[in-house]
């Protein structure tokens, strides 16, 4: 496994706290700070830990890295020894959260996946899925070429416009564009790495916990289709559609997404506390 450093963005780092822990994993070109609203909403009942994944925020990356390596790093750094945690993930973070649930189902209390970035699934789908995969491959190649040509803005412009619609890059502030350009290499690597995987969807059948999959109906069709495929592959998963919201719904429409996440966590904990098998286990 590659050497990883994963930094906690949340100021609270004591996993011995009595409140149930929630591990929230951010998406591409973001940081643990994106979960501040969720942390505020759950305060008093849950304790949210929002690490900066390797290569983002203050977290450094040494060598190469893939989703499995990151999942193992999160398990060894944060999850192991804390008891079962609720996992919430968006995009790249959702892919990592799902991998944790596959590797160590005993450490996962529940799973919430917001448009997981598991793009290779399209390559084993229908003709329309294959067309979407081809579009993603073209975008990945363009981003890699922009890195090679030392033109990070060109790569991030294409990426942002693909996910958020034509002209989205130009509508962002200059400060945000500068931040995004700094992440171009990391985003390009994560994107290419997701496309290169070949794990079958049947692997997701190893997930044993209650799972909520969320997708925003104004997202790119790729995000919608992947969410459907993941929800179909996880036994008993619920798929929730958020209307009039895009890929970053947890930031743009927290009034909708945050209560949905909270309701899922509370449902799971209520079920676990009243289940006869759960009581016998204790």
Describe the structure.
- There is one protein chain.
- With 282 residues, this protein is an alpha/beta fold.
- It is built from 12 helices and 8 strands.
- The strands form 2 sheets. It has a 6-stranded parallel sheet, with helices on both faces. It has a two-stranded antiparallel sheet with strand order 1-4.
Note the main attributes of this structure.
single chain, 282 residues, alpha/beta, two-stranded antiparallel sheet, 12 helices, globular, disordered C terminus
Question: Can you give the mean pLDDT?
Answer: 86
Bin the strand percentage. Answer: 5-15%
Number of strands: 8
Rg is 18 Å
Structural class: alpha/beta
In order across it, which strands form the biggest sheet?
3-2-5-6-7-8
What is the fold's blueprint, element by element?
Layout: E1 7-8, E2 20-25, H1 36-42, E3 46-49, E4 51-52, H2 67-79, E5 85-90, H3 92-103, E6 108-114, H4 127-148, H5 152-164, H6 168-171, H7 174-182, H8 184-196, E7 210-216, H9 221-233, E8 238-242, H10 249-252, H11 254-274, H12 276-281
Parallel strand pairs: 2-3, 2-5, 5-6, 6-7, 7-8
Antiparallel strand pairs: 1-4
Helix pairs in contact: 1-11, 2-3, 4-5, 4-8, 5-7
């Amino acid at each position: 496994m590659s050497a990883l450093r994963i930094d906690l963005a949340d100021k609270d780092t004591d996993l011995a706290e009595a409140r149930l822990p929630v591990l929230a994993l951010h998406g591409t070109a973001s940081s643990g700070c994106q979960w501040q609203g969720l942390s505020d909403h759950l305060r008093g009942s849950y304790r949210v830990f929002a690490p900066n994944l390797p290569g983002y925020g203050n977290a450094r990356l040494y060598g190469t890295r893939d989703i499995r390596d990151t999942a193992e790093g999160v398990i060894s750094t944060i999850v192991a020894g804390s008891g079962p945690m609720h996992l919430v993930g968006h995009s790249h973070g959702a892919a990592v959260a799902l991998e944790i649930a596959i590797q160590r189902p005993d450490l996962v209390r529940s799973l919430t996946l917001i448009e997981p970035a598991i793009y290779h699934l399209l390559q084993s789908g229908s003709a329309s899925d294959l067309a979407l995969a081809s579009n993603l491959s073209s975008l990945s190649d363009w981003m890699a070429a922009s890195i090679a040509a030392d033109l990070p803005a060109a790569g991030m412009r294409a990426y942002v416009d693909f996910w958020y619609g034509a002209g989205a890059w130009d509508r962002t502030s200059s400060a945000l564009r500068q931040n995004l350009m700094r992440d171009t290499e990391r985003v390009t690597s994560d994107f290419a790495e997701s496309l290169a995987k070949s794990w079958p969807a049947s692997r997701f059948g190893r997930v044993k916990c209650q799972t909520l999959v969320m997708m925003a109906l104004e997202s790119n069709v790729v995000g919608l289709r992947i969410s459907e495929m993941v929800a179909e592959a996880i036994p008993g998963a619920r798929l929730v559609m958020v209307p009039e919201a895009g890929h970053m719904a947890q930031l743009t429409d927290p009034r909708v997404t945050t209560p949905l996440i909270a309701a899922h966590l509370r449902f799971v904990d209520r079920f676990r506390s009243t289940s006869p098998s759960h009581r016998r286990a204790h």
